[in-house]
Amino acid sequence: MILLLAPVGATLLLARSISFWNAVKCCAITAILSIGLSVAVDSIFWQRRVWPEFEVLWFNSVLNRSSEWGTSPFHWYFTSALPRAMMAGLPLALLGVLLERRTAKFVLPVLIFITLYSKLPHKELRFILVGVPVLNIAGATAMARIYNNRWKPGFIWRTFYSLALVMLMASFGVSMVIAAASHANYPGGHALRVLHSKEAVASEVSEGFVHIDVLTAMTGVSRFCEVPHWRYSKEEGLFLEDYSLRNFTHLLNEKDSIPGFLCLQAIPGFSRLRLQKTFPQLLVVTEPKVFVHRAEYLDDADTGEWPGCDAWSGTGWFG
């Protein structure tokens, strides 16, 4: 946010939209209140005195250790992240700057912000997402100018109008496809919900001890999914033979066979998109991603409601 507010604030000062001392006063009050609230609340949750935003800033920027989570080239935000996030909105935003010069004072600080963030090797769309609404302002300005001039003599404005409509419809279609794929992209969260619905509620397993592997934790599992009286472990580095020695009652794991455990259900996740000539034209193909296991020593628990690990649906559809 500092990287975004700095160029925005500089633009406001240069345009004399705000005085320097008013800016200092506003920023100081906001900083004191926000930092105080963050430290007070998060220190309670973490059980230690902590300012999490500063720790992340220190880790990512000062120590430059964010690259441990993967790196992308300098141009990734401009050539990959923004085109996929905005689709038709990005060319319309660039056109908006040309058609309406007043949008430049909004767009320029965002471009500076994204450029500065591009210097960090580790890149994620969420880092720059706060700048997208500002770019959409420029895109909306371009669309409004094209719409208001669509009946003017000559073919230029009518051509722009037709192209803009095609681009917006294409963006809507791509968004729907991405939404359908994303819906199948959280098998971990779905697996934990299924486990709770059949074991924590519908069976006699009143106090479960669940191990969640890395893939499951990365695909939808969070603390908000947990239920009372159940325990959860995300211990890493375990071999398949170690699970039965940890007294786990259940496992959510990417492996379909683990010694000492019975595989109860395979949870499918997104694999790929497949085109075909018949309706529906586009299929979302899934494959087993996470498997729900139960310890074999719970032999008195009912397994009748579980379909087993061979029963799963291989395709969804979008067409």
UniProtKB/TrEMBL annotation:
Residue ranges crossing the lipid bilayer per the database entry: 74-99, 106-122, 128-147, 159-181
Any single GO CC term annotated in Swiss-Prot or TrEMBL for this entry: endoplasmic reticulum membrane
EC numbers: 2.4.1.-
Domain of life: Eukaryota
Reaction(s) this enzyme catalyzes, per UniProt: an alpha-D-Man-(1->2)-alpha-D-Man-(1->2)-alpha-D-Man-(1->3)-[alpha-D-Man-(1->2)-alpha-D-Man-(1->3)-alpha-D-Man-(1->6)]-beta-D-Man-(1->4)-beta-D-GlcNAc-(1->4)-alpha-D-GlcNAc-diphospho-di-trans,poly-cis-dolichol + a di-trans,poly-cis-dolichyl beta-D-mannosyl phosphate = an alpha-D-Man-(1->2)-alpha-D-Man-(1->2)-alpha-D-Man-(1->3)-[alpha-D-Man-(1->2)-alpha-D-Man-(1->3)-[alpha-D-Man-(1->6)]-alpha-D-Man-(1->6)]-beta-D-Man-(1->4)-beta-D-GlcNAc-(1->4)-alpha-D-GlcNAc-diphospho-di-trans,poly-cis-dolichol + a di-trans,poly-cis-dolichyl phosphate + H(+)
GO terms, biological process: protein N-linked glycosylation
Pathway: Protein modification; protein glycosylation
Topology class, membrane: Multi-pass membrane protein
Protein name: Mannosyltransferase
Species for this entry: Marchantia polymorpha subsp. ruderalis
